[in-house]
């Protein structure tokens, strides 16, 4: 069942939406997730999807991701005060060129591409004044609007890369948008972003691809390819065309990252003859890895979630599920998020926003702390 | 609570154990898991642990992993008809040399080291006749006997690497052992094993370490190190000394794997200027990755688990938890293993083997399909 627009009248205490008309140009996984975030957090009064694919548009509308759909840019765009370019990277620049003539000069324009310097230069060339290049660092092995969900962007790092031409007011509006969507904005210049993602994203992809190619050349290897190898090659399982576009677009920064990577590999290979030094390298690697920030997100869509804090009293899981079962609320999914000596938390996946509201009420009545996400 | 030895008398229909006295030399994660597997599957009448660390021995005995403990080799070893060398790799050869004088010539001897050619040669030199080198491809980020569990080895690929000196009867006994522990034996020569694990295990570790070192040299990177980077560097989070020993021991094969890896990386880098060829490479990489066999195992200890098949009727999760809650069974952990249109499966983590038995009875009575693991 698609998410429903909130049916209750907006209570008078709520602030006005950040935006009146938001346009999502490209209704795929990320564009759709932005739309769902805008909707569930009441950030836009009206959400319009525009896409070259009529099928994608119809699916987005059927799923309740957007309010209206448009097959092509036009005068209607002047009503937009937020435009999110969320098409695949290879068509971002032509898409921006198509939209530019119709954009309201006051509209905040942003994109979600994974390489930033080229698109930043392109939008400047097109004269789009309030453009703030952006890169939400979120994704899923499963693409398309059907897998879009507001939660995909929650807690994600969302890089904003203003140039020297970006008005500070636009940057501040973009930052508010990102924060209201539940993501964590990080601001840096486009070139710095591209260098960093070359190392943390594009180089790992290429290394992962090189590893899978070793297996492709000797099928005996797949027999022994256990957990560690699967972990290392997971990124090679993403959409080949999107991955290819990403690394080609950022090839200059990627070549530098490759050079640094080879230097590290060579050093480690030399240390195979110097076990003490290699042990120090292994210890330093573990320290670094263990200190990486954790952003825990499931790859499964989570439309109608309820997070319940559970205490250390016996059988709290049973108490929660019994209370909901007795009330006829259907639990579709359940996950223990954390278990500690003094309690923990679990996530319940429910069917509808109404179920989330009902379940939250029941559990609060039974003394549980609950955070809902319809 | 430690796993309890089966308290009910063995029913007369059960076959005699495969082994009378099994000796686990090195009671850590893997040795302990072998011991628990031998115990839970009734494969040995008596399990003796020997270890240089008295603390490890005491912990193993307190946890019920072994029946008896010994601080040093001696005449008592002659009673063993199975000896599993499960010490860290760097001490395997000296350990074997200490044990060799006391071994019964009929005893099956095997090891669990991750590099095979050297230890195979060493045991031949020591004159241990019934030695079958082995490598269970299983592990956990958490070491030590406290994390040992029989399930760690279930469904794991367990490579056996007989040499030209290995008696076929010994190989066949080793294979039976592996199969009875629930693992999947794969037989190949030691050198072939070492070449293959250099590529699927030791090279990925080194690549992962090189990636973490890039982050260690520029802390801005950790800000953007999202899911993909975490996946690729997970293996760098293992025990540094064990990882170091493993790659140093296998450095010759690893150097060859590194050479092949660099060739693939160079080719991919060149293809950054040939996007069509790079797309083909990305597609081939995805095909290969997606066809890797899946061995799904959690890294968390699962001592007292129950897997329940659930149908597509409404609120089956609630029905399961209500039935157990009503009977006072405390569910400590719950995980949905699979959800499909036509149903799914979930895992319940319980406190004691008795809880598993009780819960299985209740759920079977309520019409659920249940697989228990106490």
Automatic annotation (TrEMBL), chains A, B:
Keyword set, alphabetical order: Amino-acid biosynthesis, Aromatic amino acid biosynthesis, Coiled coil, Membrane, NAD, Oxidoreductase, Transmembrane, Transmembrane helix, Tyrosine biosynthesis
Pfam assignment, any one: PDH_N
Annotated metabolic or biological route of this protein: Amino-acid biosynthesis; L-tyrosine biosynthesis; (4-hydroxyphenyl)pyruvate from prephenate (NAD(+) route): step 1/1
Primary enzyme class: oxidoreductase
Residues in coiled coil: 251-285
Segments forming domain Prephenate/arogenate dehydrogenase: 19-302
Residues annotated as domain ACT: 305-374
Biological process annotations from GO: tyrosine biosynthetic process
Catalysed conversion reaction: prephenate + NAD(+) = 3-(4-hydroxyphenyl)pyruvate + CO2 + NADH
Entry keyword Amino-acid biosynthesis: yes
Bilayer-crossing regions: 16-38
Keyword check for Metal-binding: no
EC number: 1.3.1.12
GO molecular function, one term: NAD+ binding
InterPro entries, sorted: 6-PGluconate_DH-like_C_sf, ACT-like_dom_sf, ACT_dom, NAD(P)-bd_dom_sf, PDH_C, PDH_N, Preph/Arog_dehydrog, Prephen_DH
Protein name: Prephenate dehydrogenase
Species in which this protein is naturally found: Deinococcus ficus
Record lineage: Bacteria, Thermotogati, Deinococcota, Deinococci, Deinococcales
């Amino acid at each position: 069942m698609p998410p429903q627009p909130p049916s209750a009248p907006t209570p008078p205490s709520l602030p006005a939406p950040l935006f009146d008309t938001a346009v999502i140009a490209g209704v795929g996984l990320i564009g759709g997730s932005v739309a769902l975030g805008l909707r569930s957090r009441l950030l836009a009064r009206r959400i319009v999807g525009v896409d070259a694919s009529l099928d994608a548009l119809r699916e987005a509308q059927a799923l309740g991701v957007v309010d209206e759909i448009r097959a092509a840019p036009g005068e209607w765009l002047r009503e937009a005060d937020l435009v999110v370019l969320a098409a695949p990277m290879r068509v971002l620049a032509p898409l921006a060129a198509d939209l530019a003539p119709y954009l309201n000069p006051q509209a905040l324009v942003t994109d979600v591409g994974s390489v930033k310097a080229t698109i930043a230069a392109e939008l400047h060339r097109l004269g789009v004044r309030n453009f703030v290049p952006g890169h939400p660092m979120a994704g899923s092995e499963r693409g398309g609007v059907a897998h879009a969900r507001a939660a995909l962007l929650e807690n994600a790092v969302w890089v904003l890369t203003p140039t020297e031409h970006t008005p500070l007011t636009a940057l501040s509006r973009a930052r508010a948008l990102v924060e209201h969507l539940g993501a964590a904005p990080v601001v840096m210049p486009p070139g710095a972003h591209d260098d960093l993602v070359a190392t943390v994203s594009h180089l790992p992809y290429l290394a992962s691809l090189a590893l899978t190619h070793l297996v492709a050349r000797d099928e005996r290897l797949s027999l022994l390819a256990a957990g560690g190898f699967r972990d290392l090659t997971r990124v090679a399982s993403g959409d080949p065309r999107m991955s290819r576009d990403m690394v080609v677009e950022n090839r200059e920064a990627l070549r530098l990252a490759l050079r640094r990577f080879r230097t590290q590999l060579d050093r480690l290979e030399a240390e195979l003859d110097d076990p003490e030094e290699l042990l120090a390298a292994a210890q330093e690697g573990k320290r670094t890895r263990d200190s990486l920030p954790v952003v825990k997100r499931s790859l499964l869509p989570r439309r109608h979630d309820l997070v319940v804090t559970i205490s250390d009293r016996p059988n709290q899981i049973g108490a929660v599920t019994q209370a909901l079962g007795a009330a006829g609320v259907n639990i579709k999914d359940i996950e223990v998020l954390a278990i500690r000596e003094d309690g923990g938390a679990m996530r319940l996946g429910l069917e509808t926003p109404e179920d989330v509201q009902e379940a939250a009420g029941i559990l609060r009545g039974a003394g549980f702390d609950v955070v809902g996400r319809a």
